[in-house]
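tool=predict chain=A
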Amino acid sequence: MVWSEGDHWRCSVKIHENFEGLIEYKYIVTDQDQSYYNWDPGYNQKLYVFGDESCSFSQIKFIQDSEGKDNTVLLRGRNASGGLLYNQLDDDGISDSSQHSHKNHKLNNQEHLIPVGKDKYIKAMSFNIHFFIDMNWGKRIKLILQAMKSEHPDFIALQEVMPYQREQIKGNMTNYLYFGRSRSCDENDQQNGILFRKDRFFKLEGGHIWYSRNNEQLDYGSTAPRMMTWGIFQDIANNDRKVGFVSTQWDDKSVESQQKSAEIISQLCPKLKNSCEIIILGGDFYCTENSQQIKTILNQGGMKSARQNYDPGNNNLQFGTKDDQIQKQYPTFHDYQGERIKEKGIQQDHIFYNSDSNYQLYSFRVLRNIKRVKKVENNMKQLYYPSNHYPIVAEFIKNDKEEKC
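tool=predict ok
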């Protein structure tokens, strides 16, 4: 393991070619007795399969115990068909750049391939990318793209997207299609767009719904026109499997507008459920989950909060760490202050899914570690963040024990 500038662990890992077909890995390094482990703020790297340089892996996480003890490598991955895998490699199955001898370690009884096909695994992201062009946009766009490419979600709910930002994102996220429009009659205004993987889904239908009595207008005390973008997407691998996905941003000031927005969403969700196996709603709500506005979505809209319902210690499909256990404490709005925001930060970005879905929540994360560290005078560090919001990610697995009618 090599400690690099910016306090990030970097190492290369190679997987023998008998693991051909794996497209995504996460691995951690822990001490032998698992008494300590935590997510390290490392950037995602790439893995390569022996004999196939074209096969790269887009998602890897690093964990290193702080005391430098004898360490163990744990792998988990996702293959091309969507199956989730925990490593069953022997000592010779893994090598790293420093030639350390890492032992294979089983995590309880979870070392198995979960029989989940490509059409039964969904990853969703919600990300307010902040519309300001003068907030170090040249640095921010690189970090925004890093966050999206490293996670490679199936759907991304974007907020505050300006046309110039949209075009840069579309030009770099070539495996995705973008769906969205301006919130007002001004084509240069903000959008709540949806990015979706074109290699896996195609859009059957979609549209835009304003939280006002007249489209593109202010209403209910809002400070700007507020709306949602929604779509129904069909899985290319399964004609019978459809996903409803919604991206939204509520008003930042008016509680009346927020409540009306919640009521309109609660009317849409049951309609989408008639056509879709799962409804996923992502956005910037300017409300915490304890607010009456969010409770309206949960109670009247029949939705669940990914944050509230994620319990890594209670589900053997979930791969929990100490960091996962405290995810609910992380704010999502940090105003470019990162960890310095502390209790002043707000959990206002959320991902919801319908409570009667046959999909099981697999994970929920706040991506706090996407940042650039630059050293300035007197060894001081300048931190650059992709946005004034952290992106959030939720993963879902189809439960085949009970089919929907």
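Residues 1-117, 315-322 have pLDDT under 50 and may be disordered. The longest strand covers residues 22-31.
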